[in-house]
Please model this.
Amino acid sequence: MHTLVKTACAIHSLALATAYGAPFVFKALKKATIKEIGDEKQRGRVLATTAVNFSKVNVPTHLIFAGTWLIERRAIKKLNVSQHTKRLVGLKDVTIAGALVVEMANLAVFKQLQRDYPDGVPIRQTETTPDAKLERYRSYYRIMGPLHMLMVGGSIVLGGAIAGSIIRHDRTALSKLLR
Model:
């Protein structure tokens, strides 16, 4: 059982790091695509394909960090931990669930975006023909992107805070968890 917990903790950390880093990679690819591909439609198709491929990694990553958190959480709950640690675990429950819900909502919105723009999303709008629907999608992602990063980043920070709280409260609890 302890090997399972240690493995789950390691996988959980890697999945959170992947979920946190993926948007930065996508932004870098988007900038490179805009710089290197002159044709608007081709840029849209390349970015749409990239987004589809990212979702094939991002969704399982979120399911993995949520599932491994349940294993890690169960092990922590078996320890004699302080009320402070219990509150941190509860807060991490919120950030993990929030990140998962936001990612699933983003996936649903992305699927709708694909239906509305099958040839890819135009990168730049012309001033004479603004696209209100596209602007609503952009507004959604301007809010949900940072919210997602806050949830995943918060989960990462809370993991360290929980470990520190366990160590401060009961040094033998940590040794029990890692045996």
Q: What stands out?
A: The chain has one domain: 2-178. Residues 2-178 form one domain. The first helix runs from residue 2 to 36.
